Amino acid sequence: RKEDKKLGEVSIYLCVSLQGGVDNEVSLTAYITIALLEIPLPVTHSVVRNGLFCLETAADEKENHVYTKALMAYAFALAGKEEKRKALLGSLEKEAVKKDGSVHWQRPGKEPEVDLPYYRYRAPSAEVEMTAYVLLAHLTTQPAPSQEELSFASLIAKWISGQQNPNGGFSSTQ
Q1: Is 14 exposed, middle or buried (0-12, 13-18, 19+ CB in 10 A)?
Q2: Is the peptide bond before 117 cis (omega within 30 degrees of 0)?
Q3: Pfam families, from UniProt (predicted)?
Q4: Packing angle between helix 82-94 and helix 125-139, nearest 10 degrees?
Q5: Dihedral sign computed on CA atoms, order 100, 102, 103, 109
Q6: In angstroms, rounded to a whole number, what is the distance separating the alpha carbons of residues 68 and 82?
């Protein structure tokens, strides 16, 4: 389904097969919907509504990539769609890597590097990014996150902070 709506001077395409450094059209739709909700445009705006409709349809698919689920969870959190947010976070928790008192997500089929003496492995930027989206999804909820969610979020934040380089940045600006 292709929707072309004017938003100021910007033309937005939702639910199209475009590639822009993301895995698929669902990821692109989630990115755009997140950006519009962060402006903030209301959930009732036609472009946002169309994006959320596409994401709701895609959320029911079983084959979603962990990165796409993370983006959708945050989009639903921003939109106040608690049931969808919680369902995706539940699915994501089953795929989480829980290690050394922290939690993170990695791309399927990507084996983590082994820590060597005097060398600390840092995860690829895509894994830091998707883990950060899961953290945002946990913390962006109304009413405020529960104590249980905050405890889980702190384990995610611990892993993310461990990915910082000596200058306080990360492996990329992504």
Answers
A1: buried
A2: no
A3: TED_complement
A4: 140
A5: negative
A6: 17
Over the stretch 112-153, which tens digit does the pLDDT of each residue have? 556 555 556 788 888 999 999 999 999 999 889 999 999 999
Q: Using alpha carbons only, give the angle 49, 29, 156 rounded to the nearest 5 degrees.
A: 105
CB 130 within 8 A of CB 67: yes
Q: Look at the chain and count its residues.
A: 174
Q: What is the 3-state secondary structure (H, E, C) of the chain?
A: CCEEEEECCEEEEECCCCCCCCCCHHHHHHHHHHHHHHCCCCCCCHHHHHHHHHHHHHHCCCCCCHHHHHHHHHHHHHHCCHHHHHHHHHHHHHCCEEECCEEECCCCCCCCCCCECCECCCCCHHHHHHHHHHHHHHHCCCCCCCHHHHHHHHHHHHHHHHCCCCCCCCCCCC
The token pair at 48 is 């946002």
